[in-house]
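Complex 857.
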Amino acid sequence: KYIKLEDYKVFDYEIPEIFMDFVINKNAVNVTTKLKLVKKNKNTKNLILDGTDILIKKLFIDDSLIEKQYYKQQKNNLKIENIKKDIFLLKIEGIIKPKENTSLLGMYESNGIITTQCEAEGFRRISFHADRPDILSKYTVRIEADKNDYPVLLSNGNVLKENNLTNNRHEIIWEDPYPKPSYLFALVAGKLNCVKDNFITKSNKKVKINIYVEYGDEKYVQHAISSLKKSMKWDEDKYNLEYDLSLFNIVAIRHFNMGAMENKSLNIFNSKLILANSETTTDEELERIEGVIAHEYFHNWTGNRVTCRDWFQLSLKEGLTVFRDQQFTADVHNSEIKRLDDAKFLRRNQFREDSGPTSHPVMPEKYQEIDNFYTTTIYEKGSEIIRMLNKLVKDENFYKGFSNYISTYDGKAATIDQFVDKILEHNKEIDPKKFKIWYKQNGTPKVKFKRIWDQTDEKLTIEASQSNPIKKNLYNDLPLIIPINLAIFCDENKTIEKTVVLKTKKQEFVFRNIRSHLQIPLVTYFREFSSPVEWESDTTFEEKFLILRYEKDFFTLSNTVKVFYKKIILCRLDEKPDHKIENKFISTLISFIKNRDINLSLLSELLSIPTFAEIESEMENLDPLKIYKTIDELNHLFGTKLKEELYFKLQEIETSLDKVWPEGKNERKLIETIWKLLLHSDDEEIKSKIINYVDSNSMTLAKAALNSFSRINCPERKIISNIFFNKWKNNSVVLDSWFSFNASIEIDEKTNSIEKLFENTYFDSKSPNTLRAILNTFVTRNSTFHAIDGSGYKYIAKKIIDFDKLNPIVISRFIKVFSRYNYYSEPYKSNMLETIKQIKKNKLSTNTKEVLDAIIE
Ligand code: ARG
Ligand code: ZN
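Predicted structure with arginine bound:
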């Protein structure tokens, strides 16, 4: 049942051209496809094409009907036998039913709009095709539909022709001049309003930009448009890549499984990643939207013009495109903060995945359902690997190698190997074969450091060693090439910054002429998070306090602070609070607050007590209810002890709160942290102050106000929840935050209060956004999920079973919530295990089954 990389075989045919004809009727769509097939393997007489849930009416080869006995349709494919011709046109007349499709894969309907999602294997639900990324074809597409129901008809490329037909129908013909794999095909039909703009490329070509949204949403697209234009410009400046058509369309769709999709010249987005302005969207969301728009746009070259040979190469486009979108955000905002955010995201999500049952290499060795591999490992760890490559060969070589890669493989399907070879082509220090081990290993590598100090010789030796905690994978025993950014602090004013490269299992790095007044020079490792690893050193807690004084690197500062929080939490969980460390740490935080030069986003980071989700991914034998309690206690303690300084800071930043994004975002970020701490200190005065912000015209402040009440049980919580609901009930994108907020609230009736959310008239069971808002928040921010009698787990199990029938993609991701049951203490562990077993007894999708099988082998 597994697909394996080593089984890769070139397809027997090429399909240079595809003509598609879509006739959209009330209850079904007639799809007639003509595939131009060119036999490559002259020994074959058969043709097997993928296809699911398509009713075949007729088949023809070069206009002659194929009799029923010469073809066979099975559940997921079509087999035609006895084909004598080497070049022929296969015509397939089929019927599909988008209205009945709840999976949001292939062609489906969302709020009356017909749309498609083909990546990875959705095209086969629209028409028969080899449906693999190494088959590149030129597409011509005719769409015909009723003019009133479907006034807008879109597909990839350029419009060839538009006509009115009889019976109030119309047709349009699209032609995409660039050969593409089937996963990049897209079609949209429906009542959509178009907001127009344009962009002049560096070679003076005018590109029309059309953003399609549902009527009424036009006022929310300016942010998307300006983000797109910024991205187009940035890709020209940074990578010398220019857009290659004269039209670029984006459509916002309400019911969408993922963030967005890079279909050639017709990007389709989850509406929550298009519709935005500062009244409805938080600063963080604005930045995320800008980043996703950039990501999809950047795919035009890294993914579309150069695509992937097979799905084992998924990170070739995703890792690389994430790397590019991260660079973009770093360039247009603050690169140090961006690095901090990305490192935090990776450590929280990818490290969690990599230490659990669904851990896999960036190039997985096998899969059942490729949709299960759109993971943070493929995306974010993939990006980190490219970041290391860039660091190792330096910018000049990196960009040269990148351009060579693009020009060599333009119009082709490439592999990760080929990419790495291009980047390392003219370099002598890095052995490509050794570097590529990064793609084959799974698990988070661990690096250990030890300092040996010779004061008389002024010589500091750093011993480094690497290992991988997961032994099953044979590649994990091989050494990786690991770039380490370090700083050596000799004293307050003297810092030596260096990048060293660990290439073997054990290695020594020697630094001479080090003059230091410290007992032993202080070293910080992996500054800017230079490699996606964990590490351990001989740095003492006393020294860590010094790091907080000397260090300037944002990542290292926040990481060091995190170490303190964790230490404090662990001691308290053990019922042995270390008051000495706590007090000293609090004084350090006070000095950060008092430092008027500190970046306020960084300050907010430093003052944020870890959440349950952060702690959960890093602990063993965990007692969830106790963790929730300890975190609440700490918020109370820190809020109380820092009160005076926090109030002072509050005053200082209040005047900047209504600046327009990106101005004022650091202040707004900090205010959320301050509010939360102060509320937890039982400060009554702050309550009434915060409530005033719930209907603020800044969504960042409104949501900050709302969310800071999440764990504060008081009558005001209900009041602000109602204010927010009444203001936003008709805006589904914003209302999801209300669903999320309410899913975080713990009420004695336990899961009943969550069930009420599903019964709410504004709950839309087809919306993955709302479903995720409720489910994800409940399991990560509401301790009721971990009710000691197991009722929270059972409740969620029921939801999993029900919703898996509707949408396997959403559920197979969500079910990973149970993947760390082994790290829980009793009775949680047994309760979770019991629940997983119960879920497994049901009829489940292949997606969800594959993940469950990994969770309990
Ligand atoms: N290629 C899209 C992106 O990263 C994601 C599509 C994911 N689709 C899926 N069925 N897993 O931009
Ligand atoms: Zn992508």
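Residues 295, 299, 318, 321 surround zinc ion (ligand 2) (CB under 6 Å).
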